[in-house]
Queue: 2 jobs
Job 1
Amino acid sequence: MLDDRKKKVLQAIVEEYVNTAEPVSSNSIVNNYGLNYSSATIRNEMANLEKTGYLEKTHTSSGRIPSEKGYRYYVDELLKDDNISLEEIKYISEKLETKVNEIEDLTKIATTTISEITHYTTLAIGPSTQGLLIEEIKFVLLGPRMLMAIILTNTGMVKETIIKFDEDVSDKQVETINYMFNQKLKGQPLEVIDLPLEEYLINEMKYSVKVIRPIIEQIKRVVKQDRQLYLEGTNKLFDLPEFNSLEVAKNFVNIIDEKELMTDILNSGFAKDINVYIGDETEKQELKDFSIITFKHKVGDKDLGTIGIIGPKRMDYSKVISVMKYINKKLKDKGT
Amino acid sequence: MLDDRKKKVLQAIVEEYVNTAEPVSSNSIVNNYGLNYSSATIRNEMANLEKTGYLEKTHTSSGRIPSEKGYRYYVDELLKDDNISLEEIKYISEKLETKVNEIEDLTKIATTTISEITHYTTLAIGPSTQGLLIEEIKFVLLGPRMLMAIILTNTGMVKETIIKFDEDVSDKQVETINYMFNQKLKGQPLEVIDLPLEEYLINEMKYSVKVIRPIIEQIKRVVKQDRQLYLEGTNKLFDLPEFNSLEVAKNFVNIIDEKELMTDILNSGFAKDINVYIGDETEKQELKDFSIITFKHKVGDKDLGTIGIIGPKRMDYSKVISVMKYINKKLKDKGT
DNA sequence: ATTAGCAATCGAAAACAAAGAGTGCTAAAA
DNA sequence: TTTTAGCACTCTTTGTTTTCGATTGCTAAT
């Protein structure tokens, strides 16, 4: 356990480093953070915090920077999560008041707003279909060989897909298809649509495999479909001093290009409201220089997916978490 | 008009510079391009080509690099568009043989393939709705206050959108809506859906504004909707030597972030099969260091949108254009 | 337990030197 | 008239040395 003064020193160093991106000296702490001790005392504390793994040095005679353990301690124990100004509150509120036609547009607005306020790159991904139930499937014949299937879920999410056939399909057939599919699927989880169902339907109905199989295939496809990943403000990070290193910059672009990696991270972390991954904590080598903070957002109790931000390890955790908490709350309230 | 030797010198300089990214000296041309003259002669030609604007110097005693005018001349007059190896042809053919369910997936495959072969960043955008005619509109009631409109166009493109109402809508009402909308819109261009139509429908039908207006608004929205921009291989360019300059790298990320700019460029240039924009030719300041090459692709005669690549001005125009031509042809054939 | 004081360490920046690549020009050769 | 050899000149690149300043760790005093 850290004693009080050590906490204060650690906090000061994290905050100063977040601000300046320069190793923090004992002197600057004394001058800017009003700790009533001499720089020598602070130096002793710093040496100690280094020994216990909370701080690091870039070279023998440099100031200190926080280690991952240091950031983690700061985030868990020291950080204030109401670091948000009146102007920011006002700005966010205004943004979220915007009238939208599609509820998904709210995600975009929230994503953009976060990026604007925090100056980091934001990511967003739509809600998972995991656990959703099929409320109804509708079929609409768009042409003699073209059918649209519309799947309604219990949460009001709608997914639709077009199926093309090699042979003509009649209204009558569609009616039967409609009946059979709904008979079998209503109230079932989306994941139920799979091979056994396929066999069952083909056996049960007299229609050729040529009609049933494409339908099931397409439905399976659309249900499992990778959700679209949104990116906002890729360029924002390039203003940061760490991006003067070509290696870091290149690394970042590589990461951003790997949609799967990003999707994975957004999809993990269910435990808490807000998930913070600091550097190596993601256990993905590429991300060692970066931190990611994510949260699931809902409007009312309708799941809207996950929003995240990515920035340098030297991230303004306090600001980001404060903003996320506020937006999260605002959105939740909006549903009521 | 450039005489033969000048052409050869210009061509050599462009190709050498494309390969090495270093200013080209008179000596290297003599050595690597088998021009049977002394370096002094080449130097004279180079001085001349510089005076006439085809070449540039980075400083007094440096080799030459092509100017925009030089690149342009090269692209228009000197470039070979069959710069494609047997392996590449085989690779492309295989890729394009892949069985796809959605024809749009072909676009993705083509885009990825181009990025893989050329090592530049590729862009793609879906087909324009410009000039399409409405074949039919179908309405499906998904719930008492939720309606889906499905628009079929003459090219087989399908667009659908969901409309939510503040009041219940009956089957009967939907029937009328269906009749009226189709009555009025069948065979019309998509762009016809606009204010006058709105007034007309509201007057003609006895349904409240509350029902008609949201329908038209949503349809207008989905028709005009920005088409999704795909990006592939953003990181590819970061391996190029010009990206050692932070300014260039940052510039690039800024460009990539500006979806609108990219969309604009992909949408312009109808005149030719393949459009080449060299540096400032786009007249967008941000793009001055980059070149863009785009082409519209079709399967059979079905418009699939535009694919483009973005790279440094020092781009392998020959390779890119060759690959695009080949893919273009392959896709076109596929429709038959 | 705290602090003043000071030598030691290291990086960043500046100043300087040397090497090398390339050009332009002149005068000679073809 | 065209081409070329030759050479002085220019400018970049690279490496080296020096200087300067920031900061630490340690010791001895408070």
Job 2
Amino acid sequence: MIKLDLQSKTPLYLQMEQQIIDLILMGVLKENEQLPSVRNLARDLGINPNTIQKAYQDMESRGIIYSVVGRGNFVASPSAAESLKRRESMAALEKLLQDARHAGFSAQELHQAVDAAFQPRKEDDLL
Amino acid sequence: MIKLDLQSKTPLYLQMEQQIIDLILMGVLKENEQLPSVRNLARDLGINPNTIQKAYQDMESRGIIYSVVGRGNFVASPSAAESLKRRESMAALEKLLQDARHAGFSAQELHQAVDAAFQPRKEDDLL
DNA sequence: TAACTGTTCTATTTCGCCTAGTACACCCTT
DNA sequence: AAGGGTGTACTAGGCGAAATAGAACAGTTA
């Protein structure tokens, strides 16, 4: 259900968060559904429970999941995850668009880049 | 001439590279112009010469500057810096556009974001 | 020669990430 | 009440990247 890349430069707990968010957005994980326990998931992934705990805590602070002591962690409203992801994505994009502008790109070039991103290629949706 | 943010998460040597590249693109630093020596710049910025050296070496490997032992470091062709920055900027943008697409943004929304980035605002060009 | 330059090297510190282990409080089922 | 699950908190340590500190060597220039 979750695959971690131990070689990646991005921390394990962030990889986890990203994949769980995606699972929520894809509808695999539904509202109020219980997430794997800290200990179980750590055992399955072969990593330390503290790392799972860190990811869960971070996601709870972002409103993606909520936790109940003694019971477990549960996914919050999927719309929360969606709006969060859209918000973060747009914020990053705006910053990068400014960079591109200052790098000398014209509006026309950037519009072309947008179109290219929506141009179906062979590899798309195979990930 | 160069300002470092010691609190930033991005390494000092990368902050330096970014700012020097910008200075080249703005025409402040011209082709074949000599850069500050490793020791002088380190003294002025209050950091270690090795950090400057790392930045210079990295920039040389990227073709932005060239170094001559015993003489100093000099800016290479400004077009090298420009094409590099454009290349890097576009690569980052393409990746983020895909993210945005998968986050549920429509092409129309992204086109609007591009236009917004080119919309003159008060703070612009004051940096 | 003297004073500058780049370059290389080792050692040390700092910090974030991650692991390891332990302990405690809570909830639920039996 | 008891036991096993849960989240939570804490200390300790390893590890690697970033940065510092200091020294040494090599080339250039006045």
